[in-house]
Amino acid sequence: MTTPADSRLQRLQALLADAPVIPVITVPELRHAVPLARALVAGGIRTLEITLRTPVARDAARAIIAEVPEAVVGIGTVLTPDDLEAARDLGARFALSPGATPELLRAAAASDMAFMPGIATPSELMQVLAAGFTIAKFFPAVPAGGMAALKALGGPFPQARFCPTGGIGEADAKAWLGLPNVVAVGGSWLAPEAEIKAGNFAAITERARRTLAALV
């Protein structure tokens, strides 16, 4: 019998199987949201993390979900159970957090939302695993020890899989994805704020294409 936790995990695994690279997007103004999502989709990157870091973030996610059906929208910077519920209400396909409090883990375990909690240390990973989550966001990836840290975590925690985010760029994404316990990488390099504000969406499309081509 499939449990709710099994269902969440299966949906998250299916999403990540098609998303080796997940852009971490901070939308400065609502008018940028849909053109930005379309630019990334045109470059072959469909799975997007919209962070809750700006006042327009929720409206931006709502607009992308409504107007860019090819996009698979996740909500990032989920800090509280209310944020998690908001992600679900928006129609997001998954949610991510930079860390994980006991309160947030309890809410996520009780929710049907596919969720990727954040960890940076072995103790945090143990708490996440104990709550039933085997795929975690490793954040901030480079400051928290980089690839060496993830290799070390693979020893005592062979069941855990990671989406490292924080300090990863176009040049080293492939190396991170080469680690056996990494299922995807996240990063803001795909959609720099300066290009978003300038409306230079063609550059974002080209970078998305170039990034995916380099992973082959």
Automatic annotation (TrEMBL):
Keywords assigned: Carbohydrate metabolism, Lyase
Can you name one GO molecular function term for this protein?
2-dehydro-3-deoxy-phosphogluconate aldolase activity
Q: What EC number is given for this enzyme?
A: 4.1.2.14
**EC category:** lyase
Listed Gene3D superfamilies: Aldolase class I (3.20.20.70)
Pathway given for this chain reads: Carbohydrate acid metabolism; 2-dehydro-3-deoxy-D-gluconate degradation; D-glyceraldehyde 3-phosphate and pyruvate from 2-dehydro-3-deoxy-D-gluconate: step 2/2
Q: Which reaction does it catalyse?
A: 2-dehydro-3-deoxy-6-phospho-D-gluconate = D-glyceraldehyde 3-phosphate + pyruvate
Pfam families attached to this UniProt entry: Aldolase
Per its UniProt entry, which superkingdom is the organism in?
Bacteria
Oligomeric state and partners? Homotrimer.
Q: Which family does it belong to?
A: Belongs to the KHG/KDPG aldolase family.
Mind telling me what this protein is named? Answer: 2-dehydro-3-deoxy-phosphogluconate aldolase
Q: Which organism is it from?
A: Methylobacterium oryzihabitans
